[in-house]
Amino acid sequence: MTWTPTPGDDQRFLDLAIEQASTSWDEGGVPIGAVLVHEGRVLAAGHNQRVQQESAILHAETDTIERAGRLPASVYRGSVLYTTLSPCLMCAGTALLYGIPRVVVGENRSFERSEALLRGRGVAVDVLDDARCLALMERMIAERPEIWSEDIGVESSELSR
Description:
five-stranded mixed beta sheet; 45% helix
């Protein structure tokens, strides 16, 4: 990775991911957004679309990478993935598959399953603990718990444990 983002860059790109998360919420979906950035340029932005597209796998990160399209491996290996919520195992696996060296996470209090996996494979994971990201997820869990439990692959009754 030749481009070294500053904290200001990280915040600016996370802001774009938050816009995507808000779009998903407004569409009736899960409020998670992501942005893929290469050398300071946004390649793609996306959001969770499982509800909107009746999809089993369109999480924010996979939607974003799909929107980026077919790219040379060298582009992915020089990119940063920004996401409003710590990635699930599927999304972490996608980042690993394409060799994305850094993932910037908006918050990981609501959900965290894969950060150790990513770090164990040499991926830099930076958690910004953004209050807006946390507020979006707290609202999701309070107002649409059945959609959230479906999204993370658990029964609604398991959320209260």
